[in-house]
Design brief:
Largest sheet: 6 strands, antiparallel
Oligomer: single chain
Shape: globular
Distance between the termini: 22 Å
Helix content: 40-55%
Radius of gyration: 20 Å
Strand order of the largest sheet: 1-2-9-4-7-10
Number of helices: 11
Strand content: 15-25%
Amino acid sequence: MENRTVYSTDFAELNIYETRQKAENVYLEFSYPIIASMISGKKIMHLDHMKQFDFLPGESVVLPANEKMIIDFPTATLEQPTECLALGIAADKIKETVDFFNDKTRIEFENDTFQLEDAAIHLNHNRNLQALVDRLTLTFVEGSKAKDVLLDLMIKELIIRLLQTKARVLLLNDTDKLLDDNRIAFVVKYIREHLTEDINVDKLADKACMSKSSFFKTFKNTLGETPIDYLNTERIKLAKNLIRNSNDKLREIAFQSGFNNVSYFNRQFKKIEKITPKQYRSLLS
């Protein structure tokens, strides 16, 4: 039913899984923290303390050690297997990098000394993180003479990006609590509440009471992406919800999500989700 290929170095292990038939309630657990990333197909993930969710290509999950997973494989076939990778990192490598990050970097939030999450995190639209995971995978598989050195650098970068992601998640999840003293939080709330309206950087800078250049730089430094990238990501999230919960044509869903150009909607969906809107609907069905 499932093939597993393993690549390893002194401080990390990459597992690539290929599942070739439908299955339900498959149990999996790792004794070390992992970053799991979907390559193809679809899983339905059941984790402690989280509502079940679809796990699709372009998405990642950060899992602490000994996290129990129950997984369904609703679409796997011999011709179109479900593929996923799981990257495990040694605890001392994580601690070394976390200590360095906290010594050199300050995130402007209360209690701003950061650790990797004790609970699972589902990352469904982090393009920078996904690109780094792709580079790591290629380096593991190629096995060049400089592999260990390159992997050491990339894994440190991966851990730091995960720490930065935690700060981003804090801002995006606790937006209302931060409104009084965080102008970016105010803009995030405005974007969410006016997704289908005409929004541009000039208008958002105005809302933040900042110059356009200062707002653009501050927003990107805070969230790791431009205001328009964030706006498009939120609109694609809305589009995914509409695809899941309606039978409307994809063209209509594009306009309902705030896009005024169907081709642009299709490009952004593919860029963010790694699959087209049509493919996403097919996976759900």
